[in-house]
Amino acid sequence: MLAAMGHNGSLYKYVNSSLGLDVDFMKAALQQAPCRNCPLPTWQWHTSPAICMDKTFMLLMVARQGVALQYAGSELRDDEELVRAAMHAYPLAFQYASYALRGNRAFATYAVGVSLQNLFYVSEDLRSDRNFVLFCLPTYYMGQPQAVQVTTILKKLPETFASDREVVLRVLQALPHWHRRAELMRASRDLHCDAELKEVAGLQLSRFAVRGYTDVHLPAPPLTAESRNALQYSTTAAQNKQSFWRELLHKDPAVLAFLGKDEAVDEKDLVLAAVKKDGRMLEYASEELRMDVDLVLAALENDADVYDFLPEAMRCREEIALLAFRKHRIKLPKPLLSNRHVVVEAAAMQDKATEVEKRRLQKLPLAHLVAKFELA
User: Which positions fall inside the DUF4116 domain (predicted)?
Assistant: First the structure.
């Protein structure tokens, strides 16, 4: 077969699968030029410990299929040359490297440079190292090649980083603009009102900074092009009219972020129209309206991120907790786990129970319902 492959390299696809355990044959097959119409058969080479420990073979294999690194022997998964070759074919092959290599600061930095998502696969010690995280986080720019789009970073980091302003700022800068608002909501509540963080997230830009100027850069998300033009080119007199903001807000709910403490933010009908389109705009309503149950329910109906910045008192309201569970499968808050009505309703939602089945659920112990239906 090796002689025949010397004349026609694609003949390997016709061989008996048992040859997949022959290291010489496998090397010869891998040395053939890759062919889109003749992919490698699913040979069971990875069941042979001897083949998995052969570095020459593994270099050929990971160059063709980066995910094959997961089958390499433990010593080879600690080999930088092999892991680099695998990452060249598959950037996330870093996750299959040995724990020691994923804890190597220099190599982990290189891996994160290959793909930001590799930050989630570094060792626990490095992921908890503030200096390492700050050093590794890149600044996102439009058009940069990314095999996998990263939508959140804070969820994968230790919880303490959510209250670290510098880390949160770098995290926001590392994400695409359209994911920054949701990421800011994952930071601790005391950072939600930070002016610089809100501006980086595209949630705040002073109205007075745009009046009378046409060269001010307005972030594309979350404002529409029409809203940006209206804010840039309208006069001060026009912006002082309630009707200006009313019309603009009905077209683009993100305009609510620009109203500051204006009267418009205290008008429930305007805020309601905004949160029905984008629930996260509830954050820019007045303090009184943010505690309005109708507005919270409308915002939570289509946006799970709203739940992140609700005060504990609002989260513990029955109607809000049940809506969050029904729409977004958000776990019930602890104070409500002793409320039989809420627990039974949530269990019935989870089980899609009929009225007869719901009455049967009411007879079961609360602890059993919470555990069985994963309500907490």
Answer: 54-102, 268-315
Distance CA 111, CA 105 (A): 10
Closest by Cα among 232, 230, 263, 233 to 247: 230
**117 Cβ partners below 8 Å, 6+ apart?**
91, 92, 148, 150
Summarised one tens digit per residue, pLDDT across range 311-320 is: 888 888 999 9
Other CB atoms within 10 Å distance of the CB of residue 67: 15
Q: How far is it, in rounded angstroms, from Cα 58 to Cα 132?
A: 31
Q: How far apart are the first and last CA of the chain?
A: 60
For residue 99, the model assigns a pLDDT of 93
139: which residues sit within 8 A by CB, 6+ positions away? 173, 174
Alpha carbon distance 22, 20 (integer Å): 5
Q: Is pLDDT at 361 greater than 80 in this prediction?
A: yes
The residue ranges of every structural domain in the chain are: 137-204, 207-220+227-310, 325-376
- DSSP letters along 69-120, please? GGGS-TTGGG-HHHHHHHHHH-GGGGGGS-HHHHT-HHHHHHHHHH-GGGGG
Distances (CA, A) of 1 to 36, 181, 293: 22, 59, 75
* pLDDT tens digit sequence for 291-340: 888 988 988 887 777 887 788 888 889 999 888 888 888 888 888 888 88
Q: Give the Cα separation of 100 and 72 in Å (integer).
A: 15
